[in-house]
Amino acid sequence: MGRNHPHIPPLPSEPILSVEQLTVRRGQQAALQDVSFDLVPGTDAAIIGPNGAGKSTLVQSILGILPRESGAVTLLGHRLNAKGQLPGEVRQQVAYLPQNFLVDRRIPLTVKELVALGWDKLGLQLPWAKAKARQRAVQQALERVEAGHLGRKFISALSGGETKRVLLAYCLVRSRQLLILDEAPAGLDVRGEADFYQLLYELKAEQGWTILQISHDLDMVRKHCDRVICLNRRLMCQGVPETALAPENLSATYGSEFVRYRHNRHAC
Amino acid sequence: MQDLSTALALFQYPFMQRALIGGVLTGLTGGLLGSFTVVRQLSFFSDALGHSALLGISIGIVCGLSPSVVVLPFALLFAIGVTYLLEKTDLWTDALLNIVYSASLAIAVIILSSEGSYQGGISNLLFGDILALQTTDLWVSAVLLLGCSAFIGLTLRTQMLLTLHEPLAIARGVNVYAHRMAFMVLLSLVVATAIKAIGVLLVGAFVVIPACAARSLSRNFSSYILLSAMLGALSAAAGSFCSALFNVPSGPSIVVTQLILFLAASTGLLRRTRLV
User: Could you give the CA distance from residue B209 to residue B34 in angstroms, rounded to a whole number?
Assistant: First the structure.
């Protein structure tokens, strides 16, 4: 593997993300056990499962935030090493939006500065290097998500919906291949959530992103996603929504009570 | 109170010039690192290190070494030890710092109480003596300022992302442990160097107060960092002058000046007078 010239992008047949027999421990307990799946470019995959099923653990260990006990993760043809490291060029191709994005609201960071962090390569560089290119890219990304007017605002002054749009600009500001979203629309009302997904899928169509997202909204998953990964510490099932969201699979993942409740709610 | 010309005339003396330059250098460095220290909620770190440094100094006294020689390596050990403990234990930062500094202080007091010959130097350690700065001290401060500016300047975006959201930074491949360690080591060296001038009790103010004042005045993160460093330098210069004018100790005079700037910034007075 060329260290100076990582092989990007992968061939269409090659998975953009490959997880093999991933096991993660938290304390004495296995948070994930022998999870394996592949994502080919262009897929929109949803990870579903009850609370405590290991969904966030899965995406965090894919990104090297949490250590693995065993198993392998390969992103864009590059295997995550034991320390959770990947070449910088590969990292640049992946954007991650964490659950709730809780930040200290007293930090005096503006929207433009936040989006610019998505553009920068984070190595050693002078603070004023490539200032014009950065400024142009940030403005274009903000305008694309209709947040151009928010640039000078502190991030603490944003509403929930505005924060999500700005975070999408953070992903958009540089060309990416894979977006990993951990319950990205959490905290938004129904309208806000619908707006978020509309914008996300417009951008996916434009940018050709592959998406791996954690979601509790099974209706959204059925409507938008073409791949479902059912998790409850183990991989319970995976496939297209029509089969993965069948009652027997949901029952295995969430328990039979959940399926009965969901059936009754939809019947009302 | 002296008249203005007498106070200005005092700055013809080399020891006053060294005090002024030393104060400004420490103010700049303290303000620069302080901008990140405050938003990372590490304000207590500089205080804890200041108090813990007494242990290093007292061990030095027992071994017959000068406090200035002992305090830098001690600060380095403190930074590495605390960062390691923070990583390995699941404790809150302020609780862990409290344990370390209380224990260090207690041992230091026991050691110093048995060293009767050094009782007179305790006051200098507690409150510092900026007028006693030597040219070598200024060189050390200048090199530290240069090092800190290079570190913050060249890794600015990484530091910002780390400050904002650690998991987001890890997902981008940032080595959080290495960056945290480097920052703690630099902060420890700055605090340790400043102890001679400001003393262990007041040293935290140099890191915290200018940054808090800058927070109220800044329009973005970059201006916040610059403003914090500038307010650190301004308060050191103005505080040194007030010390000469009112014939009061320099260290406390600088800290009171920082407080005045902080109050003016927090109440909007500085903005209304269009000073910033």
Answer: 8
- As beta bridge partners, residue A73 has A19
How far is residue A183's CA from residue B1's CA, in Å, rounded to a whole number? 64
Task: Report the residue from B164, B171, B174 with minimal CB separation from A103.
Answer: B164
Percent helix, strand and coil across chain B, each rounded to 5?
A: 85, 0, 15
Q: Tell me if B199 sits within 8 A of B178, measured CB to CB.
A: no
- What would the two tokens of residue A23 be? 């096991």
Query: What is the rounded distance in angstroms from the CA atom of residue A98 to the CA atom of residue A59?
Result: 9
Domain residue extents for chain B: 4-267
The span from the CA of B134 to the CA of B233, in Å, is 19
pLDDT, one tens digit per residue, over A208-262 is 999 999 998 898 899 889 999 999 999 999 999 999 998 888 888 888 666 666 6
Architecture per CATH, B4-267: Orthogonal Bundle (1.10)
Contact yes or no for B218 and A108 at CB 8 A: yes
Q: What is the third-level CATH fold of A13-88+209-268?
A: Rossmann fold (3.40.50)
Q: Taken in order B116, B117, B123, B124, is the CA torsion positive or negative?
A: negative
> Which of A98, A109, A126 is nearest residue B167 as measured by Cβ atoms?
A98
Burial A204-220, CB ≥16 within 10 A → b, else e:
beeeebbbbbbbeebeb
Which of A117, A171, A181 should we substitute to test contact with B (largest number of B Cβ atoms within 10 Å)?
Answer: A117
Residue type, B170: I
pLDDT exceeds cutoff 90 at B9: no
Q: What is the mean pLDDT of chain B?
A: 87
Whole-complex ipTM = 0.84
pTM across the whole model: 0.85
Cβ–Cβ < 8 Å for B250, B13: no
Listed by start position, the domains of chain A span 13-88+209-268
B158 contacts in chain A (CB < 8 Å): 122
With tokens 């006693």, the residue in question is: B132
- Which of B154, B168, B173 is nearest residue A86 as measured by Cβ atoms? B173
Q: What is the spatial order of strands in the sheet that A17-26 belongs to?
A: A29-39, A17-26, A70-75, A78-79
The confidence score (pLDDT) of residue B104 equals 86
Cβ A222 vs Cβ A22: under 8 Å:
no
CA atoms within 13 A on the CB side of A255: 6
